Amino acid sequence: DGMNIQEVAKKLHREPAEIIKKLFMMGVVATQNQPLDSETLELIAADYGIKAEEKVQVDISDLSVYFEEEDNEEAMVTRPPVVTIMGHVDHGKTTLLDSLRNTKVSLSEAGGITQHIGAYQIKINDQPITFLDTPGHAAFTVMRARGADVTDITIIVVAADDGVMPQTIEAINHAKAADVPIIVAVNKIDKPTANPDRVMQELSEHGLISEAWGGDTIFVNISAKFGQGIDELLEMILLVSEVQELKANPDRMAIGSVIEARLDKTKGPISTILVQQGTLKIGDPIVVGSTFGRVRAMINDQGRRVKTAGPSMPVEITGLNEAPQAGDRFVVFEDEKTARSVGEERMKRAQQESRSKQNRVTIDNLFSSLSEGELKEVGVIIKADVQGSVEALSGSLQKIEVEGVRVRIIHAAAGAITESDVTLAAASNAIIIGFNVRPTPQAKIQAEFEEVDIRLHRIIYNAIDEIETAMKGMLEPEY
Ligand code: GDP
């Protein structure tokens, strides 16, 4: 008990007012934030046809729920912007990231050793800015595809001597798709062949019109190599982030996203995470993607151990049971038991999903897989009672050709269908044909688990006909 009306309403997916009204009808006067005793909770539950013991089902394993929760306004404070650098190859992304890092590390942090953890933070007039260290839109989009929307500002670097190139346009489109504001850094301004006006001209054709030309895109001329224009670029980042009013509540259990993850031989799984809300602390029980654990140690981008990490701060953490993936989200839970059970549930779901995603080829989906172009050939594993049948079957199957698609024999041998045949079929997305043989009990179980199709025949013609008919899409439905 102890839940208040607002929380009860949320669990029941009802308006708090509706619950207050119901209670009023039952003779209980309550306000939204007043904790309710168990008796009253039972009354409400009974009224909605729920036994109080059965907790109302919220899917606590769905991490996205925690990202949608609204924080109350008073708790929100300004947080540093998270900046990604994109642009065409060789236009100076890495040089810019290095020069930003090397010149602008705040004095209090001096003496630390730069640690490449996938992101770093610098301070400008005491205002921190976080940079993601992996330039390019591939990393950006992979993260987004996995649910992580961490970038607040994108800097698109365009070399002034080269102009807009294919990956410049891709970068623009990725940033636009994510609805992230763009600052254009016109780089290599030191070069005699630099032509910033041409860059402006070319970018205007892609919807990025400079303020100088009456548009609303900020352009800054820089030389990443010689440090020119870097201060102005940083000022512009702070300006854009001020306009965005980036806020977070540091006083709650942390949530955020994975920037990078790897497996270290001695330390185990290591991941760089970026806190988006709340403050992450040593010892926090945590679920990251479909991994879980307790935050054992935290290291910042200076290689220093830290005890806490607040909003927009990247840290490298250890203590997870496995390495998560870039773009996975993390959520801190109240206790380790919950974190473990959520983590295990998510692992189970991830495994189920990856299995069904692989879309095993079967006789029934063969035609649609072929016509959708997912399949270029039909992989088959043949097992038969005698070598003569193995050869007869493979000879005939290899003669089949339907609209340019052929059968490829991955493996053919005499003997029962074993687990190793199933593993091979699963790995190469093949169908197993058994002629006068059966799968071993273990192979049968594994085939069911891996969803590998095993077809058993006693007449060679039938085995061949089944494959050919399936490839032509003329199978009679089985009842
Ligand atoms: P990235 O592929 O976008 O990460 O590009 P890099 O940062 O690796 O830079 C590509 C090349 O351009 C390197 O040889 C850099 O030294 C050079 N470069 C980068 N910025 C500048 C600059 O401002 N001026 C000049 N002259 N060269 C630069």
Describe the structure.
The chain has 479 residues and is of the alpha/beta class. Helices cover 34% and strands 24% of the residues. The chain is built from 15 helices and 21 strands. It has helices at residues 5-12, 16-25, 38-47, 64-68, 93-103, 137-145, 166-177, 196-204, 230-244, 336-357, 366-371, 387-399, 419-428, 441-450, 460-472; strands at residues 77-78, 82-87, 119-124, 127-132, 153-159, 182-187, 218-221, 247-248, 255-264, 268-277, 280-281, 285-288, 291-299, 308-309, 314-320, 329-332, 378-384, 401-402, 405-414, 431-435, 454-457. The strands form 5 sheets. The protein has a 6-stranded mixed β-sheet, sandwiched between helices. It has a 6-stranded antiparallel β-barrel with strand order 9-10-15-13-12-16. A 5-stranded mixed β-sheet has the order 18-19-17-20-21, with helices on both faces. A hairpin with a 2-residue loop joins β12 and β13. α1 packs across α2 (16-25), α12 runs parallel beside α15 (460-472) and α13 runs parallel beside α14 (441-450). Bound molecules: guanosine-5'-diphosphate. Guanosine-5'-diphosphate binds at residues 87, 89-95, 135, 187-188, 190-191, 223-225.
Fold blueprint:
Blueprint: H1 5-12, H2 16-25, H3 38-47, H4 64-68, E1 77-78, E2 82-87, H5 93-103, E3 119-124, E4 127-132, H6 137-145, E5 153-159, H7 166-177, E6 182-187, H8 196-204, E7 218-221, H9 230-244, E8 247-248, E9 255-264, E10 268-277, E11 280-281, E12 285-288, E13 291-299, E14 308-309, E15 314-320, E16 329-332, H10 336-357, H11 366-371, E17 378-384, H12 387-399, E18 401-402, E19 405-414, H13 419-428, E20 431-435, H14 441-450, E21 454-457, H15 460-472
Parallel strand pairs: 2-4, 2-5, 5-6, 6-7, 17-19, 17-20, 20-21
Antiparallel strand pairs: 1-8, 3-4, 9-10, 9-16, 10-15, 11-14, 12-13, 12-16, 13-15, 18-19
The protein binds guanosine-5'-diphosphate.
Residues 87, 89-95, 135, 187-188, 190-191, 223-225 line the site of guanosine-5'-diphosphate.
